[in-house]
Amino acid sequence: MVILLVLLAKGWTIVRRKISVGGRIKLAVFGTAYFMSSLTVVAWRFKKVRNDEILYFYQSAPGVMFIIVRFLAVGWFNFAANTTRKQFKSKRRFYKVSERSERAL
Question: How far apart are the C-alpha atoms of 57 and 82, rounded to whole Å?
Answer without folding.
Answer: 33
